[in-house]
Amino acid sequence: MFYVFFDIASGDIQRVSNELNDDLNYIEIDKELYVQFSTGEKNFNSYRVIPVPTDKGSFELIEKQTSLIEFDVDKSIHEIQKENTSIDDEDVFVIIQDVNSNTWKAKAKLNENYIAFLNQTKDYYKQHKEVYITQENNPNVLLDVLKIPMEGFLRDKEFEIECNDKELIKRIDISLFCATIQENYKHEVRN
């Protein structure tokens, strides 16, 4: 067995080894990757260990993006999964379409490790996430854009989101899309 030991707050690799040390945060890697790190063929600084948003407590090794030219926007804009039941999952950003109160809302229940990971991006919580309201399953027909202050998610309770067209809240034939790399989003519909 081969291991990558890492700092849980930053995701930075501290070392690789073929000996397990349970006192440190680690993930298993294959022998080929271990050899590449050990020989210097691969550089620790080019990789980061991140939480897997869909699997609580799991981590994965990813290669850091080194250039904006490498960023593929077509692979980063995703449809947000729609649910008709209340979502209370941990480390999930929830966009709520509250038909009864005719408002858009948002919430998240984030654990400390995930918050530390997100805070690696400078001023992450000062940003606004743009969520695109489109025709159902069709990202090419834009109906409106929600601009969500990311700092609202830190409060661990629901908050309202301003929108331009309140009539869209009543429609069930819409989809939500947003640009995301690491975050996990869900669309909750309340009737």
Low-confidence stretches: none
Number of strands: 14
Q: Largest beta sheet, briefly?
A: 5 strands, mixed
Structural class: mainly beta
Number of domains: 2
Percent in helix: under 10%
Overall average residue pLDDT:
86
Taken as a percent bin, the fraction of beta residues is: 35-45%
| Total number of helices | 2
Ends distance: 51 Å
What characteristic shape results from the CA principal axes? elongated
The secondary-structure element order is EEEHEEEEEEHEEEEE
As a whole number of angstroms, the C-alpha radius of gyration is 19 Å
Q: How are the strands of the biggest sheet laid out side by side?
A: 7-14-8-9-12
Q: Could you explain how this protein is built, in words?
A:
- The protein is mainly β.
- It folds into two domains: 2-66, no CATH class; 73-190, no CATH class.
- 8% of the residues lie in helices and 40% in strands.
- It is built from two helices and 14 strands, in the order βββαββββββαβββββ.
- The chain has helices spanning 31-39, 112-118, and strands at residues 2-6, 13-17, 26-29, 47-51, 59-63, 77-79, 81-83, 93-98, 103-108, 128-135, 138-149, 159-161, 174-179, 185-190.
- The protein has a five-stranded mixed beta sheet, with no helix packed on it. A four-stranded antiparallel beta sheet has the order 6-13-10-11, with no helix packed on it.
- A hairpin with a 2-residue loop joins β10 (128-135) and β11 (138-149).
- The longest helix has 9 residues, at 31-39.
- The protein is elongated and about 60 Å long.
- The termini are far apart.
- The model has no long low-confidence stretch (mean pLDDT 86).
